[in-house]
Design a protein that fits this description.
Helix content: 40-55%
Structural class: mainly alpha
Shape: globular
Distance between the termini: 39 Å
């Protein structure tokens, strides 16, 4: 994680980030919990920079395709 990434983790979670993290936490097995820091990483840091331990923790609860940026997204087709 870069220094800039760590700076993004300082601010408190927004209402939208909290809602999204709560929805994700509900999908996790009962013995798996997310910390506030992990929730911030999931909502603010690009997936390719998530720590491997966190990827392993949430891999069964999220659809990774939702996190992959498509460079052509938003472009108009001719």
């Amino acid at each position: 994680m870069t220094k800039a990434d760590k700076a993004l983790l300082v601010a408190a979670l927004t209402a939208e980030e909290t809602r999204w993290a709560a929805e994700l936490a509900d999908k996790l097995p009962g013995d798996v919990d997310l910390t506030f820091e992990e929730a911030k990483i999931l909502t603010r840091i690009p997936i390719d920079r998530w720590p491997k331990r966190l990827l392993a923790k949430v891999r069964d609860a999220i659809d990774f395709a939702d996190f992959i940026n498509d460079d052509h997204e938003g472009e108009e087709n001719p």
